[in-house]
Amino acid sequence: MRPKRYAMTMDTKKCVGCSACVIACKNENQVPLNHYRDWIEQELSGDYPHLFMEIRSQRCNHCSDPPCVGICPTGASWKTKDGIVLVDKKKCIGCKACIAACPYDARYVHPQGYVDKCTFCIHRLKSGLTPACVEICPTASLVFGDINDPNSEISKVLNAREYFVNHVETGCKPNLYFLK
Amino acid sequence: MNGIEFMSNRANPGIDPFSIWGWQIPVYLFLGGLVAGLMIVASVQEYKFSEKWEPRLSRIVPLLAMVLLSLGMFSLYLDLDIKGLKLNVIRLYMTFQPTSPISWGAWILVITYPALALWFLAGISPAGMNGLAAKFRFLRFLVPLCDWANGIKGKILVANTAIGIALGIYTGVFLSSMASRPVWHSGILGPLFLISGISTGAASLALFKVNHDLAKSFIKWDIFALVTELVFLGLFLLDNLSGEAFHKAAAMLFLAGPYTGAFFGIVVLLGILAPLSLEWADLTEKGKAPVMAAVLVLIGSLALRCVIVCAGQACHCLFSGQMFIN
């Protein structure tokens, strides 16, 4: 049996940019004031009247080959066997190299000095729950699961829909899939 | 798609706008490069051209390098964000992470100190050390060490050259290992920072009052390094210009963007071309301004690191293949 590989899909056709995912994350993970583990991006392109708008809920891409883990000099940034990228705050020295190495700018320095980021709500996963952002999303634009399980909802979604990932040029193999 | 309007509700301190590294990192990279340059130029000069060498430099240069390296490491230490837990930095030395250039750098810095200390001891004659130990009894333990260092002086000089090269390249690889920042992600950055470090090392050595031949040698070192640096800067821009959209946009930051003035005005004109002409005049006996030339080289070298570190942090890649600047 293949090991789990957690991933998330984000449906750009469903997201309305309500920021419920942002609030849910802040509440669930006690994210400090003025800091964000996830956020909403809105990109408007084209020339009037041919305009195109895309709204995306963004977070750490929990890359399969995460540059933040490779560059960490103390091993504080690490990846679980399920593919979740985490920070061990006791080992973090606050050098911020992982922040610079992340193509998604998904990390920040916690007011206590260590680097913090999205954990895919690993504490909830251990209880059989989904991440807080996924649970709260009112348009069900976020789907979370094991993409190594062909029967999981996320695998079915990825088989049925076209998708793209961000910054493939960096070679980090992200696991946040944006459905077209 | 022509026009792009981008909005985000993320407002993380230090990320939006991206400015995680302040003055401490360019200063650290500058001092690291300067120490590397001192080690390479002085040890090669002493090893290969010992007839021109002035032995007192074998004691002054390693001591100066140790002081500068310590200042550089202190600067890096000031940058660490762990509040109240700055001693956490010891964790750098509780592990070795082979994929992390910073881990490599931390260990290179550790071996630099004993290499410099041995060079310093090799610069003291056994008789001189015996005299010192007679005066200051607590120095007695250094007598056998000094004898040993004098016996393997050639190997110590070779080791200092090798460590200097590793240190100089590391200051560039520190940044170039990050594919996330197009400005930094260039293989030229390692050699560029190495040659820039050699230039600062040679220019600093030219400030010492030494015999005419040795002074000319230091000037020749610096002229060679400055010309090579100019070539590497051109290659750095070409490397980016011949890359994909993000890299082209990175090159434009220097060619026609917010860093053009600093790059061409301070780094190229003040930091390379002006000292080059002053040193050429010195070498051809048409003029003499070694202090001015050295100061300009040091300013240019620090400016190079400031510009590269700031430009790398200022650019962000969008998914649409475009880049915006802070």
Can you tell me about this structure?
- The complex is a heterodimer of chains A (180) and B (326).
- Chain A has a single domain, classed as Alpha-Beta Plaits, CATH 3.30.70.20.
- Helix content of chain A is 21%, strand content 25%.
- Chain A contains six helices and ten strands.
- In chain A, strands 8-1-10-9 form a four-stranded mixed β-sheet.
- In chain A, a hairpin with a 2-residue loop joins strand 2 (39-47) and strand 3 (50-58).
- Chain A starts with 5 loop residues before the first strand and ends with a strand.
- In chain B, 68% of the residues lie in helices and 3% in strands.
- Chain B is built from eleven helices and three strands.
- Chain B has a two-stranded antiparallel sheet with strand order 2-3.
- The longest helix of chain B has 30 residues, at 212-241.
- The two termini of chain B are 22 Å apart.
- The mean pLDDT of chain B is 90.
- Strand 2 of chain A pairs antiparallel with strand 1 (4-8) of chain B, so a sheet runs across the interface.
| Alpha-carbon Rg of chain A, integer | 16 Å
The chain pair with the largest interface is:
A-B, 50 and 53 residues
Q: Beta-sheet strand percentage of chain A? A: 25-35%
CATH class of chain A: Alpha Beta
- The count of β-strands of chain A is 10
Given helix and strand content, the structural type of chain B is: mainly alpha
H and E order of chain B = EHHHHHHHHHHHEE
Structural class of chain A: alpha+beta
Strand content of chain B: under 5%
- Global mean pLDDT of chain B: 90
Counted by DSSP, the helix tally of chain A is 6
Structure annotation, total helices of chain B: 11
Shape of chain B: globular
Total domain modules of chain A: 1
N-to-C span of chain B: 22 Å
- Strand order, largest beta sheet of chain B: 2-3
CATH architecture of chain B: Up-down Bundle
> If you consult CATH, what is the topology of chain B?
Formate dehydrogenase/DMSO reductase fold
